Amino acid sequence: KRNVLIIGAGGVAQVVAHKCAQHNDVLGNIHIASRTVEKCQQIVESVREKGSLKTAGELQAHALDALDIAATKALIDNTQSQIVINVGSPFINMSVLEACIQMGAAYLDTAIHEDPEKICETPPWYANYEWKRKQRCADNNITAILGVGFDPGMVNAYAAAAVKEDYFDSVDSIDIIDINAGSHGHYFATNFDPEINFREFTGRVWSWQNREWVKNKMFEVKRTDDLPVVGSQTSYMTGHDEIHSLSRNLDVPNIRFWMGFGEHYINVFTVLNSLGLLSEQPVKTAEGLEVVPLKVVKAILPDPSSLAPNYTGKTCIGDVVKGKKDGQDKEIFIYNISDHEQAYAEVGSQGISYTAGVPPVAAAILIATGEWDVSKMVNVEELSHRPFINLLNDMGMPTRIKDEQGDRPLSF
Ligand code: NDP
Q: From residue 308, how far is each of 113, 290, 340, 343, 358 by CA, in Å?
Protein backbone atom coordinates (compact mmCIF):
# COMPACT_ATOMS: atom_id res chain seq x y z
CA LYS A 1 0.00 0.00 0.00
CA ARG A 2 1.19 3.51 -0.79
CA ASN A 3 -0.50 6.51 0.83
CA VAL A 4 -1.53 9.28 -1.55
CA LEU A 5 -1.49 13.05 -1.15
CA ILE A 6 -3.70 14.85 -3.68
CA ILE A 7 -2.82 18.53 -4.19
CA GLY A 8 -5.58 20.79 -5.54
CA ALA A 9 -9.32 20.68 -4.93
CA GLY A 10 -10.83 21.53 -8.32
CA GLY A 11 -12.87 19.42 -10.72
CA VAL A 12 -9.98 17.09 -11.56
CA ALA A 13 -9.04 16.60 -7.87
CA GLN A 14 -12.62 15.58 -7.13
CA VAL A 15 -12.33 12.75 -9.68
CA VAL A 16 -8.87 11.76 -8.42
CA ALA A 17 -10.17 11.55 -4.84
CA HIS A 18 -13.14 9.34 -5.77
CA LYS A 19 -10.99 7.05 -7.89
CA CYS A 20 -8.27 6.77 -5.21
CA ALA A 21 -11.01 5.90 -2.72
CA GLN A 22 -12.38 3.21 -5.02
CA HIS A 23 -8.85 1.70 -5.05
CA ASN A 24 -7.71 2.35 -1.48
CA ASP A 25 -7.03 -1.35 -1.02
CA VAL A 26 -3.94 -0.71 -3.20
CA LEU A 27 -3.39 2.98 -2.48
CA GLY A 28 -3.87 3.23 1.27
CA ASN A 29 -4.60 6.50 3.10
CA ILE A 30 -5.82 9.47 1.08
CA HIS A 31 -5.10 13.11 1.93
CA ILE A 32 -6.32 16.14 -0.03
CA ALA A 33 -4.67 19.54 0.29
CA SER A 34 -5.37 22.89 -1.30
CA ARG A 35 -5.27 26.58 -0.44
CA THR A 36 -8.98 26.56 0.40
CA VAL A 37 -9.48 23.74 2.89
CA GLU A 38 -13.30 23.99 2.57
CA LYS A 39 -13.04 22.76 -1.02
CA CYS A 40 -11.03 19.74 0.17
CA GLN A 41 -13.63 19.08 2.86
CA GLN A 42 -16.41 19.18 0.26
CA ILE A 43 -14.55 16.55 -1.76
CA VAL A 44 -14.10 14.38 1.35
CA GLU A 45 -17.86 14.66 2.04
CA SER A 46 -18.71 13.79 -1.55
CA VAL A 47 -16.48 10.68 -1.38
CA ARG A 48 -18.20 9.63 1.86
CA GLU A 49 -21.71 10.38 0.53
CA LYS A 50 -21.18 8.25 -2.55
CA GLY A 51 -19.58 5.50 -0.47
CA SER A 52 -16.55 5.47 -2.78
CA LEU A 53 -14.08 4.12 -0.18
CA LYS A 54 -13.45 0.47 -1.04
CA THR A 55 -12.07 -0.43 2.37
CA ALA A 56 -11.92 1.45 5.67
CA GLY A 57 -9.06 3.93 5.56
CA GLU A 58 -8.03 7.50 6.24
CA LEU A 59 -9.46 10.31 4.11
CA GLN A 60 -8.53 13.79 5.29
CA ALA A 61 -8.57 17.42 4.13
CA HIS A 62 -5.69 19.87 4.71
CA ALA A 63 -4.97 23.54 4.03
CA LEU A 64 -1.76 24.03 2.05
CA ASP A 65 -0.09 26.69 -0.04
CA ALA A 66 1.89 24.39 -2.31
CA LEU A 67 4.20 27.23 -3.38
CA ASP A 68 5.60 26.86 0.15
CA ILE A 69 8.05 23.97 -0.29
CA ALA A 70 8.74 23.55 3.44
CA ALA A 71 5.00 23.31 4.21
CA THR A 72 4.50 20.79 1.40
CA LYS A 73 7.40 18.69 2.67
CA ALA A 74 5.96 18.77 6.20
CA LEU A 75 2.57 17.60 4.93
CA ILE A 76 4.12 14.75 2.91
CA ASP A 77 5.95 13.77 6.09
CA ASN A 78 2.97 14.09 8.47
CA THR A 79 0.67 12.12 6.19
CA GLN A 80 3.37 9.51 5.41
CA SER A 81 2.52 9.89 1.72
CA GLN A 82 4.63 7.99 -0.78
CA ILE A 83 2.78 9.26 -3.88
CA VAL A 84 1.81 12.88 -4.60
CA ILE A 85 -0.81 13.51 -7.29
CA ASN A 86 -0.51 17.16 -8.24
CA VAL A 87 -3.77 18.34 -9.79
CA GLY A 88 -3.56 21.91 -8.59
CA SER A 89 -3.07 24.85 -10.93
CA PRO A 90 -0.02 24.45 -13.23
CA PHE A 91 1.76 27.32 -11.45
CA ILE A 92 2.65 25.03 -8.52
CA ASN A 93 4.32 22.15 -10.42
CA MET A 94 7.93 23.06 -9.76
CA SER A 95 7.51 23.65 -6.02
CA VAL A 96 5.53 20.42 -5.53
CA LEU A 97 8.13 18.49 -7.54
CA GLU A 98 10.90 19.98 -5.42
CA ALA A 99 9.14 18.91 -2.21
CA CYS A 100 8.74 15.37 -3.61
CA ILE A 101 12.41 15.14 -4.58
CA GLN A 102 13.49 16.24 -1.11
CA MET A 103 11.06 13.82 0.61
CA GLY A 104 11.59 10.80 -1.67
CA ALA A 105 7.95 10.73 -2.80
CA ALA A 106 6.71 9.82 -6.28
CA TYR A 107 5.33 12.78 -8.27
CA LEU A 108 2.49 12.83 -10.81
CA ASP A 109 0.91 15.75 -12.65
CA THR A 110 -1.44 16.33 -15.58
CA ALA A 111 -0.25 19.63 -17.07
CA ILE A 112 3.02 21.37 -17.86
CA HIS A 113 4.43 23.96 -15.46
CA GLU A 114 3.41 27.52 -16.22
CA ASP A 115 4.94 30.77 -15.11
CA PRO A 116 2.11 33.19 -14.28
CA GLU A 117 4.15 36.01 -15.83
CA LYS A 118 4.65 34.33 -19.19
CA ILE A 119 1.75 33.72 -21.55
CA CYS A 120 2.22 31.01 -24.13
CA GLU A 121 5.83 29.98 -23.95
CA THR A 122 7.61 28.64 -26.99
CA PRO A 123 8.81 25.03 -27.34
CA PRO A 124 10.70 23.13 -25.97
CA TRP A 125 8.06 23.30 -23.27
CA TYR A 126 9.09 20.45 -20.93
CA ALA A 127 12.73 21.46 -21.25
CA ASN A 128 11.87 24.96 -19.99
CA TYR A 129 11.15 23.66 -16.48
CA GLU A 130 10.44 20.00 -15.70
CA TRP A 131 13.21 18.27 -17.65
CA LYS A 132 15.82 20.43 -15.89
CA ARG A 133 15.07 18.23 -12.85
CA LYS A 134 15.59 14.90 -14.66
CA GLN A 135 19.07 14.36 -13.27
CA ARG A 136 18.01 15.13 -9.70
CA CYS A 137 15.11 12.68 -9.97
CA ALA A 138 17.45 9.97 -11.25
CA ASP A 139 20.07 10.74 -8.57
CA ASN A 140 17.43 10.51 -5.83
CA ASN A 141 15.49 7.52 -7.25
CA ILE A 142 12.35 9.61 -7.66
CA THR A 143 9.59 8.35 -9.93
CA ALA A 144 8.09 11.44 -11.59
CA ILE A 145 5.48 10.90 -14.29
CA LEU A 146 4.70 14.08 -16.18
CA GLY A 147 1.43 14.89 -17.91
CA VAL A 148 -0.54 11.79 -16.98
CA GLY A 149 -4.09 13.14 -17.52
CA PHE A 150 -5.95 12.47 -20.76
CA ASP A 151 -4.25 14.90 -23.08
CA PRO A 152 -1.42 14.90 -22.22
CA GLY A 153 -1.51 11.41 -20.72
CA MET A 154 -3.72 8.74 -22.29
CA VAL A 155 -3.04 10.15 -25.76
CA ASN A 156 0.71 9.67 -25.15
CA ALA A 157 0.05 6.01 -24.27
CA TYR A 158 -2.05 5.71 -27.45
CA ALA A 159 0.85 7.17 -29.47
CA ALA A 160 3.25 4.71 -27.82
CA ALA A 161 0.88 1.81 -28.59
CA ALA A 162 0.63 2.88 -32.24
CA VAL A 163 4.40 3.07 -32.60
CA LYS A 164 5.52 0.12 -30.43
CA GLU A 165 2.85 -2.49 -31.24
CA ASP A 166 2.77 -4.24 -34.59
CA TYR A 167 0.34 -1.92 -36.41
CA PHE A 168 2.93 -0.18 -38.62
CA ASP A 169 6.36 -0.67 -40.18
CA SER A 170 6.80 3.10 -40.10
CA VAL A 171 4.64 5.87 -38.63
CA ASP A 172 4.35 9.14 -40.52
CA SER A 173 1.90 11.16 -38.45
CA ILE A 174 0.09 11.32 -35.13
CA ASP A 175 -2.88 13.69 -34.97
CA ILE A 176 -4.40 13.99 -31.51
CA ILE A 177 -8.04 15.02 -31.73
CA ASP A 178 -9.94 16.29 -28.70
CA ILE A 179 -13.69 16.69 -29.15
CA ASN A 180 -16.12 17.66 -26.42
CA ALA A 181 -19.50 17.09 -28.02
CA GLY A 182 -21.23 17.80 -24.72
CA SER A 183 -23.50 20.69 -23.82
CA HIS A 184 -23.53 22.64 -20.53
CA GLY A 185 -26.54 24.78 -21.45
CA HIS A 186 -24.88 28.17 -20.73
CA TYR A 187 -24.39 30.99 -23.27
CA PHE A 188 -20.63 30.72 -22.78
CA ALA A 189 -18.42 28.89 -20.29
CA THR A 190 -15.00 27.25 -20.12
CA ASN A 191 -14.63 23.66 -18.92
CA PHE A 192 -11.82 24.52 -16.58
CA ASP A 193 -10.18 27.62 -15.13
CA PRO A 194 -10.70 30.37 -17.77
CA GLU A 195 -7.27 31.85 -16.97
CA ILE A 196 -5.57 28.57 -17.89
CA ASN A 197 -8.01 27.70 -20.66
CA PHE A 198 -7.61 30.95 -22.61
CA ARG A 199 -3.82 30.93 -22.27
CA GLU A 200 -3.86 27.92 -24.60
CA PHE A 201 -5.51 29.89 -27.37
CA THR A 202 -4.30 33.48 -27.13
CA GLY A 203 -0.77 32.89 -28.36
CA ARG A 204 0.78 31.16 -31.34
CA VAL A 205 -0.03 27.58 -32.28
CA TRP A 206 2.96 25.24 -32.48
CA SER A 207 3.02 21.89 -34.25
CA TRP A 208 5.71 19.37 -35.24
CA GLN A 209 5.83 18.96 -39.02
CA ASN A 210 8.58 17.33 -41.07
CA ARG A 211 10.58 17.14 -37.83
CA GLU A 212 10.47 20.90 -37.29
CA TRP A 213 8.45 23.33 -35.20
CA VAL A 214 5.87 25.16 -37.31
CA LYS A 215 4.04 28.27 -36.13
CA ASN A 216 0.44 29.16 -36.98
CA LYS A 217 -2.26 31.48 -35.75
CA MET A 218 -5.11 30.13 -33.62
CA PHE A 219 -8.11 28.99 -35.69
CA GLU A 220 -5.98 29.24 -38.86
CA VAL A 221 -5.83 25.50 -39.67
CA LYS A 222 -8.80 23.17 -39.26
CA ARG A 223 -9.94 19.67 -40.15
CA THR A 224 -13.24 17.81 -40.13
CA ASP A 225 -13.45 14.15 -39.15
CA ASP A 226 -16.25 11.64 -39.04
CA LEU A 227 -15.68 10.23 -35.57
CA PRO A 228 -17.22 7.31 -33.66
CA VAL A 229 -20.29 8.23 -31.54
CA VAL A 230 -19.87 12.04 -31.83
CA GLY A 231 -20.12 12.11 -35.66
CA SER A 232 -18.77 14.81 -37.97
CA GLN A 233 -16.66 17.27 -35.97
CA THR A 234 -14.44 20.21 -36.89
CA SER A 235 -11.28 20.76 -34.88
CA TYR A 236 -8.54 23.41 -34.98
CA MET A 237 -4.79 23.05 -34.75
CA THR A 238 -3.70 24.01 -31.23
CA GLY A 239 -0.40 23.93 -29.36
CA HIS A 240 -0.26 21.31 -26.57
CA ASP A 241 2.33 19.94 -24.08
CA GLU A 242 2.44 16.44 -25.48
CA ILE A 243 3.62 17.52 -28.94
CA HIS A 244 6.93 18.42 -27.38
CA SER A 245 7.60 15.21 -25.45
CA LEU A 246 6.24 12.95 -28.20
CA SER A 247 8.44 14.65 -30.79
CA ARG A 248 11.48 13.96 -28.58
CA ASN A 249 10.58 10.43 -27.47
CA LEU A 250 9.02 8.88 -30.58
CA ASP A 251 10.58 8.94 -34.03
CA VAL A 252 7.55 10.36 -35.86
CA PRO A 253 7.95 13.26 -38.34
CA ASN A 254 4.49 14.85 -37.91
CA ILE A 255 2.75 15.35 -34.56
CA ARG A 256 -0.17 17.76 -34.25
CA PHE A 257 -2.91 18.52 -31.76
CA TRP A 258 -6.48 19.46 -32.73
CA MET A 259 -9.20 20.77 -30.46
CA GLY A 260 -12.87 20.91 -31.37
CA PHE A 261 -14.65 24.25 -31.10
CA GLY A 262 -18.16 25.20 -32.18
CA GLU A 263 -18.68 28.36 -34.23
CA HIS A 264 -20.43 30.02 -31.29
CA TYR A 265 -17.43 29.46 -29.00
CA ILE A 266 -15.06 30.86 -31.62
CA ASN A 267 -17.24 33.95 -32.16
CA VAL A 268 -17.47 34.78 -28.46
CA PHE A 269 -13.79 34.05 -27.91
CA THR A 270 -12.83 36.25 -30.89
CA VAL A 271 -14.90 39.18 -29.60
CA LEU A 272 -13.46 38.88 -26.08
CA ASN A 273 -9.93 38.58 -27.41
CA SER A 274 -10.24 41.38 -29.99
CA LEU A 275 -11.60 43.76 -27.36
CA GLY A 276 -8.66 42.98 -25.09
CA LEU A 277 -10.86 41.33 -22.47
CA LEU A 278 -8.58 38.28 -22.29
CA SER A 279 -5.55 40.39 -21.43
CA GLU A 280 -3.64 39.83 -18.19
CA GLN A 281 -2.30 43.39 -18.30
CA PRO A 282 -4.05 45.65 -15.76
CA VAL A 283 -6.04 48.65 -17.06
CA LYS A 284 -7.22 51.74 -15.17
CA THR A 285 -10.88 52.73 -15.28
CA ALA A 286 -11.98 56.40 -15.41
CA GLU A 287 -12.64 56.12 -11.66
CA GLY A 288 -8.99 55.21 -11.07
CA LEU A 289 -9.74 51.55 -10.38
CA GLU A 290 -7.08 49.11 -11.61
CA VAL A 291 -8.52 45.89 -13.06
CA VAL A 292 -7.17 42.90 -14.96
CA PRO A 293 -9.61 42.25 -17.85
CA LEU A 294 -9.09 38.47 -17.80
CA LYS A 295 -9.85 38.36 -14.05
CA VAL A 296 -13.09 40.26 -14.67
CA VAL A 297 -14.11 37.84 -17.44
CA LYS A 298 -13.28 34.92 -15.11
CA ALA A 299 -15.37 36.45 -12.33
CA ILE A 300 -18.48 36.78 -14.52
CA LEU A 301 -18.27 33.44 -16.34
CA PRO A 302 -19.90 30.36 -14.75
CA ASP A 303 -17.63 28.54 -12.29
CA PRO A 304 -16.44 25.49 -14.30
CA SER A 305 -17.31 23.13 -11.44
CA SER A 306 -20.92 24.40 -11.48
CA LEU A 307 -21.37 23.02 -15.01
CA ALA A 308 -21.28 19.37 -13.95
CA PRO A 309 -24.89 18.73 -12.78
CA ASN A 310 -26.49 19.73 -16.10
CA TYR A 311 -23.79 18.65 -18.54
CA THR A 312 -25.02 16.22 -21.21
CA GLY A 313 -23.35 14.50 -24.16
CA LYS A 314 -20.03 12.82 -24.74
CA THR A 315 -16.33 13.44 -25.32
CA CYS A 316 -14.23 11.68 -27.95
CA ILE A 317 -10.46 12.01 -27.61
CA GLY A 318 -7.91 9.96 -29.50
CA ASP A 319 -4.98 9.60 -31.87
CA VAL A 320 -5.32 9.31 -35.64
CA VAL A 321 -2.11 7.55 -36.65
CA LYS A 322 -0.97 7.12 -40.25
CA GLY A 323 1.93 5.16 -41.66
CA LYS A 324 2.96 2.20 -43.76
CA LYS A 325 2.39 -1.53 -43.18
CA ASP A 326 3.75 -4.07 -45.69
CA GLY A 327 4.21 -1.30 -48.25
CA GLN A 328 0.59 -0.11 -47.95
CA ASP A 329 -0.78 3.12 -46.48
CA LYS A 330 -2.53 2.44 -43.19
CA GLU A 331 -4.56 4.51 -40.72
CA ILE A 332 -5.80 3.69 -37.23
CA PHE A 333 -7.73 5.65 -34.59
CA ILE A 334 -7.17 4.79 -30.91
CA TYR A 335 -9.68 6.59 -28.71
CA ASN A 336 -11.95 6.85 -25.70
CA ILE A 337 -15.56 7.98 -25.41
CA SER A 338 -16.63 9.43 -22.06
CA ASP A 339 -20.09 10.54 -20.99
CA HIS A 340 -20.70 13.71 -18.96
CA GLU A 341 -23.84 12.42 -17.22
CA GLN A 342 -22.22 9.11 -16.32
CA ALA A 343 -19.20 10.93 -14.88
CA TYR A 344 -21.47 13.13 -12.77
CA ALA A 345 -23.46 10.16 -11.49
CA GLU A 346 -20.29 8.29 -10.51
CA VAL A 347 -18.03 10.99 -9.05
CA GLY A 348 -19.94 14.30 -9.18
CA SER A 349 -17.79 15.89 -11.94
CA GLN A 350 -18.22 16.62 -15.65
CA GLY A 351 -16.61 14.50 -18.36
CA ILE A 352 -13.58 16.74 -18.99
CA SER A 353 -12.51 16.51 -15.35
CA TYR A 354 -13.26 12.78 -15.43
CA THR A 355 -11.01 12.08 -18.42
CA ALA A 356 -8.21 14.12 -16.81
CA GLY A 357 -8.62 12.64 -13.31
CA VAL A 358 -8.87 8.88 -13.85
CA PRO A 359 -5.48 8.33 -15.61
CA PRO A 360 -3.30 9.76 -12.80
CA VAL A 361 -4.95 7.35 -10.37
CA ALA A 362 -4.22 4.44 -12.71
CA ALA A 363 -0.62 5.68 -12.82
CA ALA A 364 -0.50 5.84 -9.01
CA ILE A 365 -1.75 2.24 -8.83
CA LEU A 366 0.95 1.16 -11.31
CA ILE A 367 3.56 2.89 -9.15
CA ALA A 368 2.19 1.11 -6.08
CA THR A 369 2.32 -2.27 -7.85
CA GLY A 370 5.84 -1.51 -9.11
CA GLU A 371 5.10 -1.68 -12.85
CA TRP A 372 5.61 2.05 -13.32
CA ASP A 373 7.89 2.69 -10.33
CA VAL A 374 10.79 3.63 -12.60
CA SER A 375 12.88 5.80 -10.19
CA LYS A 376 13.35 8.59 -12.75
CA MET A 377 11.41 11.38 -14.49
CA VAL A 378 9.46 10.25 -17.55
CA ASN A 379 6.64 11.25 -19.87
CA VAL A 380 3.91 8.66 -20.39
CA GLU A 381 5.09 7.44 -23.82
CA GLU A 382 8.36 6.26 -22.22
CA LEU A 383 6.48 3.78 -20.03
CA SER A 384 4.83 0.51 -20.96
CA HIS A 385 1.43 1.45 -22.40
CA ARG A 386 -0.06 -2.03 -21.96
CA PRO A 387 -0.75 -2.18 -18.20
CA PHE A 388 -1.98 1.44 -18.27
CA ILE A 389 -4.53 0.91 -21.06
CA ASN A 390 -5.62 -2.44 -19.56
CA LEU A 391 -6.08 -0.97 -16.08
CA LEU A 392 -8.04 2.02 -17.39
CA ASN A 393 -10.35 -0.36 -19.28
CA ASP A 394 -11.40 -1.59 -15.82
CA MET A 395 -11.55 1.87 -14.22
CA GLY A 396 -14.31 3.44 -16.32
CA MET A 397 -12.09 4.74 -19.13
CA PRO A 398 -12.16 2.09 -21.88
CA THR A 399 -9.97 2.36 -24.98
CA ARG A 400 -11.15 1.42 -28.45
CA ILE A 401 -9.40 1.07 -31.79
CA LYS A 402 -10.79 1.65 -35.28
CA ASP A 403 -8.84 0.26 -38.25
CA GLU A 404 -9.38 -1.82 -41.36
CA GLN A 405 -10.65 -4.67 -39.16
CA GLY A 406 -13.42 -2.53 -37.68
CA ASP A 407 -14.14 -0.66 -34.45
CA ARG A 408 -13.54 -2.65 -31.26
CA PRO A 409 -12.31 -2.51 -27.65
CA LEU A 410 -8.51 -2.44 -27.26
CA SER A 411 -6.69 -4.42 -24.59
CA PHE A 412 -3.39 -6.26 -24.41
P1 NDP B 1 -9.09 24.06 -10.86
O2 NDP B 1 -8.70 25.41 -11.29
O3 NDP B 1 -10.54 23.73 -10.74
O4 NDP B 1 -8.42 23.71 -9.46
C5 NDP B 1 -7.11 24.06 -9.18
C6 NDP B 1 -6.86 23.83 -7.72
O7 NDP B 1 -5.50 24.16 -7.44
C8 NDP B 1 -7.72 24.66 -6.80
O9 NDP B 1 -8.28 23.85 -5.81
C10 NDP B 1 -6.72 25.65 -6.21
O11 NDP B 1 -6.99 26.06 -4.90
C12 NDP B 1 -5.46 24.82 -6.21
N13 NDP B 1 -4.29 25.66 -6.06
C14 NDP B 1 -3.89 26.69 -6.83
N15 NDP B 1 -2.78 27.25 -6.33
C16 NDP B 1 -2.46 26.55 -5.23
C17 NDP B 1 -1.43 26.64 -4.27
N18 NDP B 1 -0.49 27.58 -4.35
N19 NDP B 1 -1.42 25.74 -3.27
C20 NDP B 1 -2.37 24.79 -3.15
N21 NDP B 1 -3.37 24.66 -4.02
C22 NDP B 1 -3.43 25.53 -5.05
O23 NDP B 1 -8.37 23.05 -11.85
P24 NDP B 1 -8.87 21.69 -12.50
O25 NDP B 1 -9.28 20.76 -11.43
O26 NDP B 1 -9.81 21.95 -13.61
O27 NDP B 1 -7.49 21.19 -13.16
C28 NDP B 1 -6.42 20.76 -12.36
C29 NDP B 1 -5.18 20.52 -13.22
O30 NDP B 1 -5.46 19.57 -14.23
C31 NDP B 1 -4.69 21.76 -13.95
O32 NDP B 1 -3.29 21.78 -13.92
C33 NDP B 1 -5.16 21.55 -15.37
O34 NDP B 1 -4.36 22.23 -16.29
C35 NDP B 1 -5.03 20.06 -15.49
N36 NDP B 1 -5.86 19.46 -16.53
C37 NDP B 1 -5.31 18.47 -17.29
C38 NDP B 1 -6.02 17.84 -18.28
C39 NDP B 1 -5.43 16.71 -19.05
O40 NDP B 1 -6.17 15.97 -19.70
N41 NDP B 1 -4.14 16.47 -19.02
C42 NDP B 1 -7.42 18.26 -18.59
C43 NDP B 1 -7.96 19.23 -17.66
C44 NDP B 1 -7.18 19.81 -16.69
P45 NDP B 1 -8.06 27.21 -4.54
O46 NDP B 1 -9.35 26.51 -4.67
O47 NDP B 1 -7.80 27.64 -3.17
O48 NDP B 1 -7.90 28.30 -5.57
A: 26, 33, 8, 9, 16
